[in-house]
């Protein structure tokens, strides 16, 4: 049975425990063996990480030891999948550039804060998004610094809320993307400020597929 590790913590405002529980539900429904923990000590053992099919971080604005990020990066490079959402994966450890390089993006702003209404537009024909129509959300709209090597599957449009960024004109900001890290698959979805944003509809389905894709499981 394929094994998944979900680890959660950091800023409570992102409801990491509830988001982790959603991910665990979907992975177990797909037949995976899932371990859920609230500590980064799970990154201390390289051999244990290498035995996984998937690592799912749900940490925001925290810090990580150098050996821990190196162990995760080595595991993913060897073929372990990595998947996550929102600040739980791409605003996890602002002090660690290896983490940012591996995950493919870093949050830098959300103009308008929570409650911004915007449309998520599907932009690829990949099976990760097949059959999912464009949809509207009301939540934080993430402005990210994104790896140009990432393959983008869905975007949202800036600017919606005015600010100093608006003078640059229209920008299609990635919402869903994938990339490679060695032999490993990396999946990211910018939605997920709180659990109720991703516990239903298209956001839930996109994340379910992304988690399983990263783990090389059928979806």
Structure write-up:
This protein has 219 residues and is α/β, with parallel strands linked by helices. It has one domain (3-214): Class I glutamine amidotransferase (GATase) domain (Rossmann fold). 28% of the residues lie in helices and 32% in strands. It contains 7 helices and 11 strands. It has a 9-stranded mixed β-sheet, with helices on both faces. A two-stranded antiparallel ribbon has the order 5-8. Helix 3 links the parallel strand 3 (54-60) and strand 4. The longest helix is centred in the N-terminal third of the chain and has 14 residues, at 16-29. 47% of the residues are buried.
The assigned structural class equals alpha/beta
Helix count from the secondary structure assignment = 7
| Main sheet attributes: strand count, strand direction, barrel closure | 9 strands, mixed
Give the name of the CATH superfamily.
Class I glutamine amidotransferase (GATase) domain
Calculate the terminal CA-CA distance, rounded to whole Å.
16 Å
- How many individual β-strands? 11
What is the annotated CATH architecture? Answer: 3-Layer(aba) Sandwich
What's the pLDDT, averaged over the residues? 98
**Share of helix among residues?**
25-40%
Give the strand line-up of the largest sheet: 2-1-3-4-11-10-9-6-7
The fraction of residues in strands falls at 25-35%
- How many domains? The number is 1
CATH topology (level 3) name? Rossmann fold
CATH class: Alpha Beta
Shape descriptor: globular
Low-confidence stretches: none
User: What string, H for helix and E for strand, traces the elements in order?
Assistant: EHEHEHEHHEEEEEEEHH
> How large is the radius of gyration?
16 Å
């Amino acid at each position: 049975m394929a094994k998944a590790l979900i680890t959660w913590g950091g800023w409570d405002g992102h409801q990491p425990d509830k988001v982790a529980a959603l991910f665990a539900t979907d992975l177990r429904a797909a037949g995976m063996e899932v371990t859920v923990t609230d500590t980064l000590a799970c990154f201390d053992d390289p051999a244990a990480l290498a035995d996984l099919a998937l690592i799912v971080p749900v940490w925001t604005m925290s810090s990580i030891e150098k050996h821990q990020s190196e162990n995760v990066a080595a595991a993913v490079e060897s073929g372990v999948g990595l998947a996550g959402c929102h600040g739980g994966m791409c605003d996890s450890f602002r002090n660690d550039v290896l983490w940012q390089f591996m995950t493919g993006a870093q949050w830098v702003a959300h103009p308008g804060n929570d409650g911004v209404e915007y449309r998520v537009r599907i932009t690829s024909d990949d099976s990760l998004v097949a059959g999912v129509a464009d949809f509207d959300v009301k939540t934080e709209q993430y402005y990210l610094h994104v790896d140009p090597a990432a393959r983008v599957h869905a975007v949202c449009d800036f600017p919606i809320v005015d600010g100093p960024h608006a003078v640059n004109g229209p920008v299609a900001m990635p919402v869903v993307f994938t990339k490679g890290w060695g032999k490993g698959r990396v999946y990211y979805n910018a939605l997920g400020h709180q659990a109720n944003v991703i516990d239903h509809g298209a956001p839930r389905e996109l994340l379910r597929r992304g988690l399983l894709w990263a783990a090389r499981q059928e979806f």
